[in-house]
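Issue: ligand-bound run for glutamic acid - logging full I/O for the record.

Environment: standard queue, default settings, no custom constraints.

Inputs:
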Amino acid sequence: MDQIRLAELLFPEIIEDIDHYERFYPPRALPDEACVTRIGPSPTGFVHLGNLYNALIGERLAHQSGGVLMLRIEDTDQKREVAGAVEAVIRAMAFFDIGFDEGATLDGERGAYGPYRQSRRRAVYHAVARQLVLRGRAYPCFATEDELAAMREAQAARKENFGVYGKYAPARDFSLEEIERRLQAGQAYVLRFRSMGDGEHDIRVLDAIRGELTMQENYQDFVLLKSDGLPTYHFAHVVDDHFMRTTHVVRGEEWLSTLPMHIELFDTLGWPRPLYCHTAVLEKIDGETRRKLSKRKDPELALEFYQAEGYAPAAVWEYLLTVLNSNYEEWRRDNPQLDCREFPFTTDKMSNSGALFDLDKLNDIAQNVIAAMPAAHVYDQLLAWCELYDAPFAALLKRDRAYGERIVGVGKHGDRPRKDIRSWRQAAGFLSFYYDETFRREDDYPPAITGELRQQILQAYLDGYDAADEQAQWFGKIRAVAERYNFALKPKEHLHNPGKYRGSIVDVSNVIRIALTGRLNSPDLYEIIAIIGERRMRERINAAMKA
Ligand code: GLU
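Outputs:
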């Protein structure tokens, strides 16, 4: 076969060769230990947690080693592409504080190893494909869908492996004339890799998370270029990660099964293999079973979910790190004050058998993270979320910043800060009682205190109220009201002598609490009154007496 002629036929327009690109994308001038990583989301309109999960690993590996993190848009499947999806990925990653050094940006791209959108790298793929044709390691295959389906049936009937290989790859042996004739007839074709494997041998590949893997070698003549001339994932991955000088390929374990293809390509091209880091699938506990997170069933698989619910990016980071590295929680206990980026992240502390996601755990972590966050930050993030998702509450928050900071700062001081807030959505509900516009009674008054008694108690409380009272005096007056109306000062006393008292001091406090906050669960009342002020306190108590 005249490979030069074949290459000319297939790639009449290509002028550059591989050496050109080797020079154009020179090895990076970085120290040996620096990791160059990337994420390669496909713009399908659905940014999932896996994207962030892998991005975070790449970000840590790159930035804690003085390396580079890239955002590469894998848009070679034009049928699946959705308008606006690239922007959505970029915004989502920015929202979650993943800082890329290179790659696609909202107004173009940044970096010397681009283009970073695969659809714009056609010339690079074609240069490499042409080289493979010249070496006899790639050939055009004209098989139609029907022919491939018939072949599959024959393979099934004979209990043979599926795919295009050996005797099931007739186009391997087409003559140049045959190829020329078909090209002239305008027949569609794909460019296939000519594998040298027979599946009889094993290959060994080092995976940073899984250790050394032993796998059956590739023997499939897989597709390099599709009929539209764009590369398959397999080809684009190898070409891009070589020329972008990626050192660590962090990707989901769904790519493990095709890893032998990638290895044969890297080896055939004489390019060094990157270090693969195949991350575990994201799973959850669903009743009795542990299963993969599903796009259809689990809203929490979409990154949008975390934005819409208003989880602080810092909380999501903190949570993902606990899922990612088994020693993170211990480190955090020992270093409560440090930024999570100071944690020495390693791939060998990562699980390879499924990463378990648990919203309860996320909520728990988010509460801790927000409890430790300065009130001004809480206010800013809450407001930013409300501006997008709860405009009326945003307007209330904005009316008085100082007031807003005080309400989100309640219970922050002291050794055991309150953990009232886990997400901005929940916070907007939780804080609603601080504003007359959103205040409403959500819980019932204690059954021990009804009708006239409630009015008497509230009136007695109001009569005794003095804004100058310290907390102890203020509470002393509530105790006095309790005693006067025959409520036990200790809940236990009432419990042990149910006939003796109407109830306990808790009931009395709760009447005031419900009058002021509308709920049975609230932060410290004294602190709340200090914030809402005496006038509003009196108004609410008076209103409760009438209700
Ligand atoms: N486009 C691929 C995906 O979304 C990227 C895999 C990779 O990182 O290599 O799964």
